[in-house]
């Protein structure tokens, strides 16, 4: 019996320190049911596991047992409990644990800051941080706030606190660098990224594998694939994450052949790919029209590496077939899938049906999509655009009505550009920028230049039932056009610049950017929610395959 007790205890501790599993919770229940003594070490392990697998009910049961056994004065155990509640997004109970603790050290406060950020309560996290004495904060306190803000898409605020951290003379560590580099990547702030990279080199953090991986990912997301490759080549050690970052970077830039070459090189060096690596290769094939290579990648994943496809892998395969015009083949693939398609997969398929103007399939997929009652606005917008494309204004109205009834709000299009280390954001129809009048005036001049060489605004993109001139005015105010006009106004002639959009770039703006790159002699890099577009001399790197 004693041997079984130690066996259970060892298993629970091992699972807590390795990959999380509900099996550990079952083992703990068996241990408790055996009548053997439960120690604070067992409770710490099981509470940690409950947090990782988001088992709130079992976590609460552990909390009750903890109180019953009188461990509520154990600071380490109570901190683990607080962390568990925040990971289960139950911030109310996390705050209650925090408030009831008789003594709180810096680790407890750091955990509370992380929990508040995790539950999207950034203002409370900042308030807790500012109430601390400057001497009580450690590097972990700064890291908790900076990484938490970054994860909440509040990168600008995070970088302000990073600046304060440097001014106050707090020594940064590896976690600080990874958080700040990742924020630069998400916001495509190349100038900031380069400066942080310089700090990494100066602080000798470049040899740390996670930092090197983050730098490769950052340069790729900032549109500098050449720099990403150079950093990758200079890494003294590489793991599957390093290779996956490179492959995914190539994929997002539409460099399908290069992505597959990197994958084969990875295999030759004995690195075993994982499911994320294959998402990268499939995405690369999908956005480069490499149909046969995509099938080979999919079968290699299943047959050679025994990786079970997830919904994301199936979505890539459907997208691969549909983009190539194999719509009925994609439809059959969906029917034969061992799992039911989700809204994201059907939305991707619907987008290709609309692009290839297959009304029959688009209507069928649209009905299935609405039956799923998706909570993301993208599905409804795709369906509304389809009805608008075929001139079914009643269908457009019905979809809009459904969005209102289901409380679905369209995410506002936003594009940002970094000029002289300052990020400028534009929303569609935005007039909040201090120079908005100059921007619109310059934009009208550019549009007239384009019309002189044959540009015709694609007003089919406007779903509203308004006059043609009004539709052109709506197109004029698209966020990416505003950012591009501002970029041209604010930089010397011939300067390359990058814009980032939170949604997929529309067809009219794609044509617009290509023509502007030719007229103004600029290289314009556009990163949207789907991929990168490199415009130069009137041509886009996607080859209009996007």
Protein architecture, described:
Helix 1 packs antiparallel against helix 2 (23-33) and helix 17 runs antiparallel to helix 18 (291-304). The protein contains 28 helices and six strands. The model is unreliable at 1-6 (pLDDT under 50). It is mostly helical and 546 residues long. Strand 1 and strand 2 form a beta hairpin.
What's the arrangement of secondary structure elements?
Blueprint: H1 2-17, H2 23-33, H3 40-52, H4 56-68, H5 75-87, H6 91-100, H7 106-118, H8 122-131, H9 139-151, H10 155-167, H11 174-187, H12 190-202, H13 209-221, H14 225-234, H15 240-252, H16 256-268, H17 275-286, H18 291-304, H19 311-323, H20 327-336, H21 343-355, H22 359-371, H23 377-389, H24 393-405, E1 414-419, E2 422-427, H25 436-452, H26 468-476, H27 479-490, E3 497-501, H28 507-519, E4 523-527, E5 532-536, E6 539-540
Parallel strand pairs: 3-4
Antiparallel strand pairs: 1-2, 1-3, 4-5, 5-6
Helix pairs in contact: 1-2, 1-3, 3-4, 3-5, 5-6, 5-7, 6-7, 7-8, 7-9, 8-9, 9-10, 9-11, 10-11, 11-12, 11-13, 12-13, 13-14, 13-15, 14-15, 15-16, 15-17, 16-17, 17-18, 17-19, 18-19, 19-20, 19-21, 21-22, 21-23, 22-23, 23-24, 25-27, 25-28
What is the gist of this entry?
The chain is mostly helical. Helix content is 65%, strand content 5%. It is globular, with a radius of gyration of 26 Å.
């Amino acid at each position: 019996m004693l041997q079984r007790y130690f066996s259970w205890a060892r298993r629970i501790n091992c699972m807590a320190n390795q990959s999380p599993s509900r099996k550990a919770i079952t083992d703990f229940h068996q241990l408790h049911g055996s009548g053997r003594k439960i120690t604070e070490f067992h409770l710490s392990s099981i509470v940690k596991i409950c947090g990782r697998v988001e088992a709130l009910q079992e976590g609460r049961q552990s909390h009750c047992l903890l109180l019953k056994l009188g461990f509520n004065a154990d600071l380490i155990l109570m901190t683990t409990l607080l962390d568990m509640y925040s990971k289960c997004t139950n911030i109310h109970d996390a705050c209650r644990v925090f408030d009831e603790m008789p003594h709180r050290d810096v680790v407890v406060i750091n955990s509370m800051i992380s929990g508040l950020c995790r539950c999207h309560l950034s203002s409370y996290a900042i308030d807790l941080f500012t109430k601390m004495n400057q001497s009580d904060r450690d590097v972990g306190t700064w890291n908790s706030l900076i990484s938490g803000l970054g994860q909440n898409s509040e990168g600008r605020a995070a970088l302000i606190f990073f600046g304060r951290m440097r001014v106050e003379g707090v020594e940064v560590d590896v976690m600080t660098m990874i958080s700040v580099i990742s924020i630069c990547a998400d916001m495509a702030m190349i100038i900031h990224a380069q400066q942080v990279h310089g700090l990494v080199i100066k602080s000798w953090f470049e040899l740390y594998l996670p930092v090197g991986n983050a730098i490769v990912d950052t340069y790729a997301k900032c549109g500098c694939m050449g720099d990403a490759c150079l950093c990758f080549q200079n890494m003294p050690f590489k793991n599957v994450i390093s290779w996956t970052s490179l492959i995914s970077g190539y994929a997002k830039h539409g460099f399908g052949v290069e992505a597959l070459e990197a994958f084969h090189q990875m295999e030759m060096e004995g690195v075993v790919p994982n499911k994320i690596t294959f998402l990268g290769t499939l995405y690369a094939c999908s956005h480069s029209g490499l149909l046969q290579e995509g099938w080979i990648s999919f079968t290699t994943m299943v047959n050679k590496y025994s990786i079970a496809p997830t919904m994301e892998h199936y979505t890539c395969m459907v997208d691969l077939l549909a983009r190539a015009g194999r719509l009925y083949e994609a439809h059959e693939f969906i029917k034969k899938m061992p799992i039911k398609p989700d809204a994201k997969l059907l939305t991707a398929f619907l987008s290709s049906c609309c692009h290839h103007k297959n009304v029959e399939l688009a209507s069928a997929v649209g009905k299935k999509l609405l039956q799923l009652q998706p909570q993301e606005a993208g599905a409804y917008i795709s369906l509304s655009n389809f009805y608008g494309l075929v001139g079914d204004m009643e269908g457009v109205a019905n979809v809009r009505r459904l969005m209102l009834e289901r409380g679905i709000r369209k995410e506002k299009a936003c594009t940002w550009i970094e000029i002289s280390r300052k990020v400028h954001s534009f929303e569609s129809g935005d007039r909040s920028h201090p120079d908005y009048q100059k921007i619109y005036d310059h934009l009208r001049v550019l549009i007239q230049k384009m019309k002189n060489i044959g540009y015709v605004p694609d007003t089919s993109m406007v779903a509203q039932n308004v006059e043609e001139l009004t539709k052109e005015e709506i197109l004029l105010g698209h966020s990416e056009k505003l950012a591009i006009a501002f970029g041209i106004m604010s930089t010397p002639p011939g300067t390359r610049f990058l814009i980032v959009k939170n949604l997929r770039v529309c067809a009219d703006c794609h044509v617009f950017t290509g023509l502007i790159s030719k007229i103004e002699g600029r290289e314009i890099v556009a990163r949207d929610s789907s991929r990168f577009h490199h415009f130069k001399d009137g041509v886009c790197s996607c080859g209009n395959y996007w």
